[in-house]
Design a protein that fits this description.
Layout: H1 5-75, H2 81-94, E1 98-104, E2 110-113, H3 127-132, E3 137-138, E4 142-143, E5 160-169, E6 175-184, H4 186-202, E7 206-211, E8 218-220, H5 233-241, E9 243-249, E10 255-262, E11 275-281, H6 282-285, H7 287-333, H8 347-350, H9 352-376, H10 388-400, E12 407-416, H11 418-425, H12 427-444, E13 449-455, E14 458-465, H13 470-486, E15 489-491, E16 494-496, E17 499-507, H14 514-530, E18 536-538, H15 539-545
């Protein structure tokens, strides 16, 4: 099938404009998505941190107030129930968050209490007494037990409290009782409202959670979540890094942008390990990005229509001189005497033939570059020695010239003490040492053979011998290598000594398979290592020893 140039160019213009518009729109939308996600995430994290700080400061304030009340009672060793009762009533009047405050004697009997609740009762079996008699105690949120029936509860919802208690001691350090308080958990909802109310004026679908440290149980949040465990990766991260934000799938299957802050306490209040979680549905958070994406799509379509018109006009201008050249070519083909017209305005058409000639020259240069690159691929970049690829080519050529008297001796080299140099002086020094070893091996290399770096500190030398005693030649050559490498190297003013262990195998004496010969030489090398290093062992000798 063939198409007119104008049609093709117009289609190309339309396709490219559409792709560019959609790509740019998509990229901007993604960038906007990431920027908005980061902004919302940081905002929710900051809000969660603010809420966590409010919770900690509130608990610290109540704890300090109760502690101050106890100090006032102990200041003059005045532990009269009537006087303490007056202090308790004043405290509750000033801070309604105290649902109940009481004073117990050392045996746990309540001697003074706000509103007379539990007065005369023995609370020695309750945690608020048992922990408070030991020292300052702040308990986590729990349901009311004794107070549930005694305190007013107009909402009918289960009452929850936070306990604070500590021992009262006189000036001599003797324990005179326990001061305890139950803080109403309702104040946490006030914190929630103070945090969320400004947000809800600007955002939608934002929810607030307080999660306890114990089993990550939800203490405050939507009714369906109260008392249930909340397992989120972000909560575990926040408990390690204090605060974070994340976008993750919640147990209800929806994606939420979630800000999380872990309670760190305030001043001498260590905190209860609560985690504040604020979330927003991802689809709601990124509604503006979705609107922008659709705007970009419609804009891209409009731009595409415009570019189709532009492409049609441009393609006509480009196709016109080519059509004239085609007409002239047809006239020349039938033998008419015509001149090729000069086409002004498009230098590309005028320079077409010259570009073709330059292209041919460029292709020839590319061929030369490919040859150079192929040569580079045959050499080790660190040492400049031939590599495994070069070894394969060498063996292919050498095995093609195989004859009865033709012997290839494979010498497998491994440096003794190289690892010690690497570990003590560093890999850079080790690399320089390998380069110097390669230089010495090159200085000893024979015309009929190849010296290859296999990797690390392992080298392979293939000797090509046509003589009566190739093994003796190889042995003498190996001794020269060992003597050369035993001489000290000087690298950055450090005098370094290493050794060299060598294993040898012969082709085709030991095997007709080159890979098997290399394996045999490697095995002989390890025999040299076991025998004390810095020596040469042939595979044939290894077999005879066995």
């Amino acid at each position: 099938m063939s198409f007119k140039l104008r049609t093709v160019l117009t289609a190309i213009f339309a396709t490219l404009s559409l792709l560019v518009s959609l790509t740019i729109g998509y990229i901007f939308s993604q960038k906007s998505f990431l920027a908005l996600e980061t902004e919302i995430g940081h905002s929710l994290r900051g809000t969660a941190t603010q809420a966590s700080d409010k919770l900690d400061r509130f608990m610290w304030s109540r704890s300090s107030e109760l502690d101050l009340l106890g100090r006032m009672a102990a200041l003059e060793n005045r532990f009269e129930p009537s006087e303490i009762q007056m202090l308790l009533d004043q405290l509750q009047d000033s801070f309604p968050s105290y649902s109940w405050v009481g004073y117990m004697n050392p045996e746990g009997k309540v001697l003074a209490a706000t509103d007379g609740i539990l007065l005369g009762e023995n609370l020695s079996e309750r945690p608020v007494y048992q922990e408070g008699i030991k020292g300052k105690f702040i308990g986590d949120v729990h349901n009311a037990v004794l107070l549930a029936k005694l305190l007013p509860n107009p909402t009918g919802e289960p009452l929850q409290f936070v306990d604070i208690s500590f021992p009262l001691k006189d000036t001599n350090g003797k324990t005179r009782g326990v001061l305890a308080a139950h803080l109403s958990w309702a104040w946490a909802k006030e914190v929630e409202e103070s945090i969320l109310t400004p947000l809800l004026h600007e955002e939608k679908d934002i929810e607030f959670f307080i999660v306890s440290k114990k089993e990550n149980t939800v203490l405050l949040g939507p009714k369906d979540w109260i008392g249930k465990p909340l397992k989120l990766t972000g909560i575990e991260q926040a408990q390690l890094h204090k605060s974070t934000w994340t976008t993750e799938r919640w147990p209800d299957g929806k994606e939420y942008v979630t800000g999380i802050a872990h309670s760190q306490g305030h001043l001498d209040y260590p905190g209860l390990g609560w985690t504040v979680v604020i979330r927003q549905v991802q689809s709601t958070a990124f509604a503006s990005v979705s609107d922008m994406l659709w705007f970009n799509i419609w804009s891209g379509l409009a731009v595409t229509v415009l570019f189709v018109l532009i492409g049609w006009c441009v393609s006509r201008k480009i196709a016109a001189p080519l059509m004239r050249l085609t007409q002239v070519a047809n006239e020349l083909r039938v033998g008419e005497q015509v001149q090729i017209p000069e086409n002004k305005g498009f230098s590309e058409i005028e320079e077409l033939s010259r570009s073709l000639r330059e292209m041919v020259v460029s292709l020839k240069n590319k061929d030369s570059e490919l040859v150079v690159m192929q040569n580079l691929a045959h050499y080790d970049q660190l040492t400049g020695l031939p590599n495994r690829t070069a070894l394969e080519f060498y063996l292919e050529e050498s095995l093609e010239t195989e004859s009865v008297n033709h012997t290839l001796t494979f010498l497998y080299l491994d440096l003794d003490g190289f690892k010690r140099v690497n570990d003590s002086l560093g890999h850079q020094t080790g690399d320089v040492l390998l380069q110097k070893v390669a230089q010495r091996l090159n200085a000893l290399s024979l015309d009929k053979g190849i010296t290859v770096r296999l990797g690390g500190d392992e080298f392979l030398i293939v000797l090509r011998s046509v003589g009566s005693n190739p093994r003796e030649e190889a042995k003498l050559y190996a001794e020269e290598i060992i003597q050369s490498l035993n001489k000290p190297f000087v690298i950055e003013y450090e005098r370094i000594r290493i050794g060299c262990s060598i294993g040898g195998a012969e082709y085709p004496t030991n095997s007709g398979n080159p890979s098997e010969i290399i394996r045999m030489a490697d095995e002989a090398l390890y025999e040299s290592k076991r025998a004390g290093k810095n020596r040469m062992t042939f595979y044939s000798d290894l077999k005879s020893d066995r």
